[in-house]
Specification:
This protein has two domains: about 5-115 and about 245-264, Rossmann fold, CATH 3.40.50; about 135-240, Rossmann fold (3-Layer(aba) Sandwich). About 45% of the residues lie in helices and about 15% in strands. It contains eleven helices and eight strands. The strands form two sheets. The chain has a four-stranded parallel β-sheet, with helices on both faces. It is elongated. The mean pLDDT is about 95. GO terms for molecular function: metal ion binding; sirohydrochlorin cobaltochelatase activity.
């Protein structure tokens, strides 16, 4: 019997169309190419972004519950959910809880891992980030801006910073825009290193509002302006992690692992 099988790619979402297609769209395209026997669907977890896209752009994107209901009503038997989230935080937990409510509507549901889940993921992410900046030398510091959360998974950011240092990148610093370590912690740590130049890069799948405004904005409380006030030459890379092929490969690896559970 030919089973109807789907891969639901779940993202936080973004209201910035350009970065959406370069990142989330690129991940979905590569998943579709790697798994041609599966129907590929999209869902976003941010209610705010979903409302904005519908009101401003007339774009309707499913929530996880809506996507699962649609798949069930269309007769799909197997669903693999692959999140593009960076950590196993609140958005991931909510997504898993929403999906779990549909467990009895399908033969099998399985969920792939977010970007930074396994120990090896940290090393792979570090390679993916550093290969984007081959010219980084001892007088440069790279500061990564993660999102941050009150969820205990926020510890991932400190763990990633530790991994960078352990792999010899003493000039790379990982902070968050909405939790700890914050920008002021980053300034203190960077000062200890004493670089001449700072490069800022979002540690987020998309280069959306946080990257454009909180990181690279012209307001005095943006990370760029705060570091400039400290006397550093600052440059910003407005690229989401989803634009990096090596990052997309990690998501594909996680999806492949989840696929094994469906096949068992």
């Amino acid at each position: 019997m030919n089973r109807k099988r789907a891969i639901l790619v779940v993202s936080f979402g973004t209201s910035h169309a350009a970065t959406r297609e370069k990142t989330i769209g690129a991940i979905e395209t590569e998943i579709a190419a790697a798994f041609p026997d599966y129907e590929i669907r999209r869902a976003f977890t941010s209610g705010m972004i979903l409302k904005l896209l519908k009101k401003r752009d007339g774009i309707a994107i499913d929530t996880v519950a809506e996507a699962m209901e649609r798949l069930a009503s269309e007769g799909f038997q197997q669903v693999i959910i692959q999140p593009t989230h960076v950590i196993n935080g609140e958005e991931y937990d909510d997504m898993a809880a929403d999906a779990e409510q549909y467990r009895d509507r399908f033969e099998k549901i399985t969920i792939g891992a977010p970007l930074l889940t396994h120990t090896e993921d940290y090393r792979k992410v570090i390679h993916a980030v550093t290969e984007q900046l081959p010219g980084l030398d001892v007088q440069d510091a790279l500061v990564l801006m993660g999102h941050g959360t009150e969820h205990h998974a926020n510890a991932v950011y400190a763990a990633l910073d530790y991994h960078f240092k352990d792999m010899g990148y003493s000039n790379v610093f990982v902070g968050t825009v909405e939790a700890y370590p914050d920008v002021h912690t980053m300034v203190r740590k960077v000062k200890e290193y004493q670089p001449k130049r700072i490069t800022l890069l979002p540690l987020m799948v998309v280069a959306g509002d946080h990257a454009v405004n909180d990181m690279a904005g012209e307001e005095e409380d943006s990370w760029k302006e705060i570091f400039k006030k400290e006397g550093y030459e600052v440059s910003c890379i407005l690229k989401g992690l989803g634009e990096f092929k090596s990052i997309r490969e990690i998501y594909l690896d996680h999806l492949s692992e989840a696929m094994k559970q469906i096949q068992d």
